[in-house]
């Protein structure tokens, strides 16, 4: 299975569908190549615009089918991204901005999530409507009563997705968190990012599961509060997917200040004036699953697909092969 943030989000509703149907968008073509090269049986996409009728996801899946990678099973329910609240959630005195949506977004469904699968999916449990204030031990900063009564925890979504394999079901615990930056000294985004990971700590099922998605947080480097993510890693198993491309990336600028293994990085941001390369996309299987292989699709410079991978997204596809004993 795999998780990837393909950056397939646009600045307005319907624009992603338009670009997919045009057949002329180089980034979309590169994204198709990346997925076909990885060939995961189950793929969690984060950073993919949602629309009510699922037209963009269906059109994208059709491109994959035409390229030889058929995913007959899909899931994409409405995310919190761009969901209007009518409230001043960020307290800046203005209403109706992208920061006042349940999750940052210029329109309903921006930067949503999706699951594509070659295996049948069971009934999905969507936890995305749960309030931030209701998470035990939450780090939510003080807020007016009307904001606290409306503010959801999930910036995008929290889903439980059963995957029905020949060896029995495996439950995906999928989420995509807000980046722990772009706020002020109250650290609202950093606190929310922490709690989006912490949400799963008391909800790990007894059976086989995989924590999967874009934590938007490096457990070692960069900004943020990594305690909850580290606790999830300790509660599951960490295959530590790595790549030659990340290992060979220049360790200058922000990268030079990092202490984690650069081979484990999954996203490339500017190192000169940005956070540099970070490990933010995770696949953490439960301890009763056997990991046979793991990696990040980040080829070394000059290797086949290196330019395609770089053109597709700032993020790199993370994959883990699991053996499921009967």
TrEMBL record:
SUPFAM superfamilies: DNase I-like. Residues 236-260 are annotated as: Disordered. Residues 23-315 form the Endonuclease/exonuclease/phosphatase domain. The keyword Cell cycle does not apply. InterPro entries: Endo/exonu/phosph_ase_sf, Endo/exonuclease/phosphatase. Keywords: Endonuclease, Hydrolase, Nuclease. GO terms for molecular function: endonuclease activity. This is Endonuclease. It comes from Paracoccus sphaerophysae.
């Amino acid at each position: 299975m795999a998780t990837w943030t393909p950056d397939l989000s646009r600045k307005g509703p319907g624009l992603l569908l338009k670009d997919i149907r045009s057949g002329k968008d180089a980034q979309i073509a590169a994204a198709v190549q990346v997925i076909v090269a990885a060939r995961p049986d189950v793929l969690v996409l984060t950073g993919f615009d949602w629309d009510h009728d699922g037209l963009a996801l269906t059109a994208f899946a059709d491109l994959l089918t035409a390229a030889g990678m058929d995913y007959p099973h899909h899931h994409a329910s409405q995310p919190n991204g761009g969901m209007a609240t009518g409230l001043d959630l960020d307290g800046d005195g203005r209403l109706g901005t992208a920061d006042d949506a349940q999750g940052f977004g210029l329109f309903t469904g921006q930067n949503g999530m999706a699951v594509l699968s070659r295996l049948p999916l069971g009934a999905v449990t969507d936890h995305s409507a749960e309030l931030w204030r209701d998470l035990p031990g939450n780090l939510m900063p003080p807020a007016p009563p009307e904001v606290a009564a409306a503010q959801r925890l999930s910036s995008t979504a929290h889903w439980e997705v059963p995957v029905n394999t020949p060896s029995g079901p495996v439950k995906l615990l999928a989420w995509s968190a807000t980046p722990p930056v772009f706020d002020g000294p109250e650290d609202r985004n950093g606190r929310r990012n922490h709690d989006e990971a912490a949400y799963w700590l008391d909800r790990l099922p007894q059976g086989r599961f995989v924590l999967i998605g874009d934590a938007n947080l490096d457990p070692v480097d960069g900004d943020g509060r990594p305690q909850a993510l580290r606790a999830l890693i300790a509660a599951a198993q960490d295959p530590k997917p790595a790549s030659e491309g990340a290992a060979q990336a220049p360790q200058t600028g922000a990268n030079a200040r990092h202490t984690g293994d650069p081979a484990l990085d999954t996203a490339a941001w500017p190192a000169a004036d940005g956070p540099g390369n970070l490990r933010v996309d995770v696949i953490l299987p439960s301890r009763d699953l056997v990991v046979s292989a793991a990696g990040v699709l980040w080829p070394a410079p000059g290797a086949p697909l290196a330019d395609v991978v770089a053109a597709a997204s700032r993020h790199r596809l993370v994959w883990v092969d699991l053996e499921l004993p009967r």
